[in-house]
Amino acid sequence: MDFFTQLFTDPVGFYQSHELLVAQCGINSILAISIFLTLYSGQLTLANAGFMAVGAYTTVIMSLDLHTPLVLNMLAGSLLAGAVGLLIGLPVLRLRGVFLAIATLGFGEALRFGVILNLPITGQGQGLKNPSADPLNGITPILIALPILTYVVWRLTGTRLGQAWAAIREDELAASSNGIDVPRYKMIAFVAGAVVAGFAGALETHINFFVDPTSYSAARSISILTFAVVGSSVMVLGPIVGATVLTALPEIVQQAANYRDVVNGVILILIIIFRPKGILGGGGLAILRPGWWPQGRRLRHARAAAPD
Amino acid sequence: MAQQLLNAIFIGSIYALFAVGYTLVFGVLGILNLAHSAVFMLGAVLTYALLVLHHQPFLVAVLISVVVCGLLGLVIEFVTLRPLRRRNAPQIAALISTIGLAQILVAIVEQSNAGSLTSWLWVDGANSVRFPPQSVPNPTYHVAGLTLEASKLAIVVVTVMLVLLLGYVMRSTQVGRGLRAVAENPRAALLMGINVNRMFALTLFISSALAGLAGILFAIALTDIDPYIGRDQVELKGLAVIVLGGMGSIPGAVIGGYLLGLIEVLAFVSLGSNVEAGVAFLALFVMLVLRPQGLFGARLRERL
Amino acid sequence: MPGPLLRIDGLTRHFGGVQAVNDVSFAIDEGTIFGLIGPNGAGKTTLVNLITGYLGAQRGSILMGDVELAGRRPHQVAALGVGRTFQSIRLYRELTALENVLIGMHSRRRNDTLQQMALLPVFRRGQQERVREARELMRRVGLDDQLLGRRRAGTLSYGDQRRLEVARALALRPRLLILDEPAAGMNPAEKERIRELIEQVNAQGLTVLLIDHDMRLVMGVCRQVVVLDFGEKIADGSPTEVSSNPAVVTAYLGARAQTEGVHAPGSIEVTETLERKSSGDAASQPQPGATSMQAARAAGREILQVTDLDVRYGAVRAVRDVSFMVAEGEIVALIGANGAGKSTILKCLSGLIRPRAGSASFDGLDLATAGPDRIVAHGLVQVPEGREALARLSVRENLELATWSRRGSRGGIRREIAEMMERFPILGRRRDLPAGQLSGGEQQIMVIARGLLAKPRLLLLDEPSLGLAPQMVDTVFEVIEGIHREGVTVLLVEQNALRALEVADRAYVVERGTVLLSGAGADLLSNPEVRKAYLGISH
Questions:
Q1: How far apart are the first and last CA of chain C?
Q2: Alpha helices of chain B — where are they, by DSSP H?
Q3: What chains are in contact with B, requiring at least 3 Cβ pairs below 8 Å?
Q4: Is A180 on the interface with C (CB under 8 A)?
Q5: Is the CB of C103 less than 8 angstroms away from the CB of A178?
Q6: In this complex, which chains have at least 3 CB pairs below 8 Å with chain C?
Q7: Is there a contact between A304 and C310 if contact means CB atoms under 8 Å apart?
């Protein structure tokens, strides 16, 4: 409970003592936004960790080998991630549902094992040390980028583009009868998600000293997915809430530090069972009740007896 | 080279055994059960615990472990899948809840050591252990210049027998027909008087028992045991296998398993160990782009 | 005289060996209301999908003005000014009604991504105007924009959803509006409103292509009609010309109708068959309740009682206070339009959904709480629509599975299956084929055989004639009468009210979720209201 007491009585002190946690929440929120873009258009893609890797490695390699300015490096990293997204999207976006998910997951792992681990320039399995890493100031760009991104994506949902995405998510066939070019808009969502993921990857290299291939595994993509789904995948605040809750909650339960992952898993199951459409998603809080539970039946009869 | 091909058959058998359960759940419930790899790991861990910590005879240990893994399948069904089905939750929700359960299972093993509550299960934390050689009978034969270990041969024999048995059950028994009916159209199956929930539970039991057995065989013959053998070594490769064979297809999973074993060994021999790990995902990616229904998938079904 | 807006020439599309649309040609004049009719499976929806780019044609051309539509993708066809609705409503269910209409404006809305990023709302104009237009469109199709605009589309009533789909298609500002069965499942009053809507949009200069089953609607509103049967055009012309065409009568009512002197679908005359039947039973006036109960008591003890059944899907009350009963040995029919709640009632009885209130009991078993497997084991078996055959299992496997909840020797059951295959030779000949390769009618017979193998005491039949060719419908109804003669009690749900009433001892008319009328089958057949509303026959 100290966690909350401090958060409200001494926000500055809280921020200083939990800076790394805040930074991690920020990064994870941006990543969740990146997968939100594809989920919002009805596509389940899991290539985000791969795009992060592209953004992260590009940034670090440029500052190591070319000594170009940081802003340029990060920009190049994000754009390259988008370009890779375009290339991958061309063959893959014809797939749907779980097939799309697996194909994109496969891309991420093929990138990690096939490319990163084999190129001398990426340091192979060793990873790279980031010369411009600065954990203390690295948090500032995150805190600036997050609200801007949130605003942009929030506004986006009201545009012609965003409404086309919502239409595709709800019903692809109907969308094309309304003049929406479905493959094109799917691609835009996928590439935009790739750019944001690449950007998050680039940001993250500045709070970590290393880029290391193991942090871009399939497991990372899956945990990014859980952020968005647990928050809500139809509302911009959903992924941010999801990422923050899932990143911060285990920290709160300090006593169980050893069992952090157990707590994490329990939280995940509880949230998804009680709120299958996400914390912010529609539908009231479900009260779980087995079919044989007598009260349900009694309630049903009570309701039947009551006049409308 | 012949020895390498033999290895391809050994590792392919494990992949096949693991993937058959994976694909069975996808075929019948339309859900990717991402806790499958955690059950695989627990199979190995339980057998190790019974053998080494509780000094049970080998076969007893294996039998108990397989049954416990099957029961764990029921836990997956009752805790993570059935509540969501009752609420008509989107299928992606089931994906997330099985991830949560997998996380819990791995973390429990990972955090177990001599002093903890679960020290009856595991005492080595995140470290890896090996079956003590005297506890697992494993004579070695040399035939025509090839080294054959009994444990590895057992893998192949057990896999082939179980897959044939499962194939027989699915093809020619009333329960198998019921499972296929549920897989195809749960509503129609309900109207024929089939208790669909019970069939789902049965599917999870069979699938998880197979995963546990695959984990045991894997640990005996090929690798050390640690809390991550499921997550790191078979989870995604299992996905690759069922995609190669066609999602939901049992023969597809078997062929896909051996195919992946072969591809990996060939990649290792010709390109080296760094490429070996990526090759599964490349194969998966290429297969999905060229032929999404896989080798044996009859048609692409939208389930998620 | 304006020239044709759309000219279709030699359009052909087959699926495998099936000719879905074969060498069809016609032209739609600018400003007209054009009707496209034909029995189930005639290829009407395929034709719509070809025009709108959802399917590619193998041959032929579709010219709009001088622009070729064939080969274009659906969104391109839409952008060229072809709006459409879907046979099964395809709204964006989780979005609000207004958002649905706004999305309909997609192809004439500028890309406003950057503009919408502006911090101050002043710079984001345009949206208000679009919302105003969307509200206007909702009012134009008869929807209250104030009341319904912010409701999620999926929560609107069935009729309102159909209207909203029209509003969404109008948002495109189309030159051609294609309505695919807009009145399906509506009652006469609602159909009348749809008819007014069609005439109203047409009066504003829009060309309409109307596909519907309801002959009265099509004949009443269209100026030109094309009739399809088995993918081919069999008639073309004004409504009166078409309805006296003998080929059309045969296509609609089967060869039998022709020999018995039925004239035309939707024609003014009353069929002689009906006249004869009703005059024979003239003594019994259609008094809901009284006569039917007498008939029931004569038949046997009550085996199924349904009292004040109430079912809701979310906010929608699909079934309201429905009560009826079935006595042993009867055939009872539930008739009514598509979406009236008939299938929902059946689902309730077989335990697939739970009622919100009311009770249903079958021979002592409480159907409101028992699981589907227990209900089947108790002897109440539902035969689902033919499409619910287990397509990938063989015919034999389908039949073997039907005995799931039966005890008894395997040998005896195997013998029964063999007998069933002798009884329906069609099944015997195809026993090792996957059921999916059977024709629609064969699948329907297989599903009925499946139901019989479960040894039912009450058989529920859900739309057994749906989507079948007329000859096959005859066969299926012969099978039903055969089953009945063997003493099986049958509850039949049918859209084809005429056929259902001919075989039923008693029937209940279901409309908008509630029982409107009940009586002996023959009485209802002669009831003027029933004839007008459900048989499509007016006098």
A1: 35
A2: 2-29, 36-48, 58-75, 82-86, 91-110, 150-172, 174-184, 186-191, 196-221, 235-245, 250-271, 273-290
A3: A, C
A4: yes
A5: yes
A6: A, B
A7: yes
C103 touches chain A (CB under 8 A): yes
* Residue among A161, A174, A181 minimizing CB distance to C113: A161
Q: Which of A160, A166, A300 sits opposite C112 (nearest CB)?
A: A160
Looking at the predicted complex, does its ipTM rise above 0.90? no
pLDDT tens digits for chain C (539 residues)?
567 899 999 999 988 767 788 899 999 999 999 999 887 667 888 899 999 999 989 999 999 988 999 999 999 999 999 999 998 889 998 899 999 999 999 988 877 777 777 776 666 677 788 899 999 999 999 899 898 888 889 888 778 898 999 999 999 999 999 999 888 766 667 778 888 999 999 998 899 999 987 777 888 899 999 988 888 898 898 888 887 788 777 766 554 444 443 333 333 333 333 333 333 343 334 444 444 444 444 557 889 999 999 888 766 678 888 999 999 889 999 987 766 788 889 889 998 888 888 889 998 899 988 888 999 999 999 988 756 778 888 899 999 998 888 877 778 888 889 988 888 888 888 888 888 888 777 888 888 889 888 889 999 998 888 767 667 788 888 888 888 888 889 999 887 777 888 888 999 988 778 888 888 877 887 777 776 666 554 44
Listed in order, strand segments (DSSP E) in C4-51 are 4-15, 18-29, 33-37
In chain B, which residues have their Cβ closer than 8 Å to the Cβ of A296?
A: none
**What gap in Å lies between CA C199 and CA C188, rounded to an integer?**
16
Chain C contacts in chain A segment 249-288 (CB below 8 A)? 282
The pTM is what? 0.84
Give the residue on A whose Cα is nearest the Cα of B81.
Answer: A273
Which of C78, C113, C168 shows the shortest C-beta gap to A176? C78
Q: Please check whether residue B195 touches A, CB under 8 A.
A: no
* Amino acid sitting at position C189: A
Q: Give the 3-state secondary structure of residue A235.
A: coil
Query: How many CB atoms are located within 10 Å of the residue A105 CB?
Result: 25
CB contact, 8 Å: B301 with chain C?
A: no
Amino acid at B175: V
A187/C contact by beta carbon, under 8 A: no
Are residues B185 and C454, on separate chains, in Cβ contact within 8 Å?
Answer: no
